[in-house]
Amino acid sequence: MDMPFDGAAGSSEGRPQARPSVHPPAGPAEAYLREVALFVALHLGRAPGVLWPEHDHPLLGDGDGEDSGAACDVDAFAVQVAAVTGLRARSAPGGVPLGHLLVHQISGAATWNIVGAGDDGQRASLRYRLRAGEVLYVPDGWSRTAEPAADARWTVVVLAPAAD
Q: What's the chain's average pLDDT?
């Protein structure tokens, strides 16, 4: 799926816009990526949000926390996210980096405290409790801290507009 970031090709507001796919997703990874692309198109630059995907992505584990020891290929996942969103995407090893974030909870749970202003200019202070398999989007410019449980593991992908 192609999702341009520039306003001329997809959205009058310069936000990516998911285009309907002619073919249904072939497997769970493709279905998961389609869900993420639609989720990012809805939230990018506007406000935080949580996605409870209907599908799991094999590169990130099974989503129920049972396979929490399996290695996640976050770099390969970031490449796939970039392909479906039309944005630059890179993995963020450790910490809470700057930029638009997609946080995928691999196992355990973590509470995220997020403070910022939405596209309407109103300040908000939010708390999200992520469990295994859930995805959190945090817009650039919002402060965020995580309070993880002892068994919590997550991956972070940083999103940015595609380079011109």
A: 77
